[in-house]
Amino acid sequence: xxxxxxxxxxxxxxxxxxxxxxxxxxxxxxxxxxxxxxxxxxxxxxxxxxxxxxxxxxxxxxxxxxxxxxxxxxxxxxxxxxxxxxxxxxxxxxxxxxxxxxxxxxxxxxxxxxxxxxxxxxxxxxxxxxxxxxxxxxxxxxxxxxxxxxxxxxxxxxxxxxxxxxxxxxxxxxxxxxxxxxxxxxxxxxxxxxxxxxxxxxxxxxxxxxxxxxxxxxxxxxxxxxxxxxxxxxxxxxxxxxxxxxxxxxxxxxxxxxxxxxxxxxxxxxxxxxxxxxxxxxxxxxxxxxxxxxxxxxxxxxxxxxxxxxxxxxxxxxxxxxxxxxxxxxxxxxxxxxxxxxxxxxxxxxxxxxxxxxxxxxxxx
Length: 365
Ligand SMILES: C[S@@+](CC[C@H](N)C(=O)[O-])C[C@H]1O[C@@H](n2cnc3c(N)ncnc32)[C@H](O)[C@@H]1O
Ligand code: SF4
What we know:
By secondary structure, the protein is α/β, with parallel strands linked by helices. 39% of the residues lie in helices and 18% in strands. The protein has helices at 11-20, 27-37, 51-60, 132-149, 170-181, 201-209, 225-231, 234-237, 240-254, 272-282, 310-322, 343-364, and strands at 67-73, 79-84, 90-98, 101-105, 109-110, 128-129, 155-160, 193-197, 215-219, 258-264, 289-295, 326-329.
């Protein structure tokens, strides 16, 4: 039977678990020391633990549950990992290099039920949520990979922007953040962590009320309900007006800035009138919001969408600037590999299915 990864527990949760099983709470610190400072991958490499404590942990937990299936390395240093979970499902994790450090983009669900019409992740509906252990382990797998290269590199930033909708897996996503931000562990400061959501309004409010303290990004992608409903069906449940109210609630409650993500899709949402409408929508929030323009990564299955030209992106940017909106254009990473989120996974699943069908045909002949 498969065991959960111990990475999913905060140090307090582990201490409580150990106490329930008749061990001193303080041993949790020793385990964390082994996991995050020495970065061991087996309980047998924690000699400071009493043997009966080690055996107990081995009986109930694993450290590593993900297996590397494929790794694609881009010329710009971006590395895309495809991991196999214990149940055989595949997920993607991406390491990106920036001037300010190294970021890891993590997956939170196997597939996604939100089904945005431009996204490769939503091509396969959600089969399950990831546990917090499986999300933390993605970061640890990348950190261990970096350790193996012996360049003394450390994951410094996290973006929760891989496959899945993090706010549809709120509990595990929250626990993941509590584990990775702990100064006794990976110590990734909340300001170095960004969670992106397609706009689940009640969860944005819950997030604002929480103590998580990370950055928030909203996948807005349209200046009005007509366009947003056309490209993101979540807009039927949570249209722009309640979404903006939840954003205002977040801004007021947290006193932090917010990122509004906007994918530019040729002739769909990239025209000058769309930029003007977006500027008006951001309007009074301009001091606390940054619009991040995202060049579209084409996805074969969504051939109705094309990337906007460089000139169109510049014109859109200029219109926002003229309206005193803080705006940036997302730098692209790994354009020479299967860069769109979910693309590597969906290609692998398709090729596995084709191979399975071929094997079936051969067996029936
Ligand atoms: C994959 S989603 C995951 C987080 C969350 N589900 C969301 O939608 O914000 C992360 C970001 O990637 C964007 N995205 C999805 N497909 C894309 C594509 N083909 N090209 C560029 N960005 C894409 C999403 O719109 C979103 O802003
Ligand atoms: S953009 Fe986000 S919410 Fe939409 S389908 Fe992709 S992963 Fe899901």
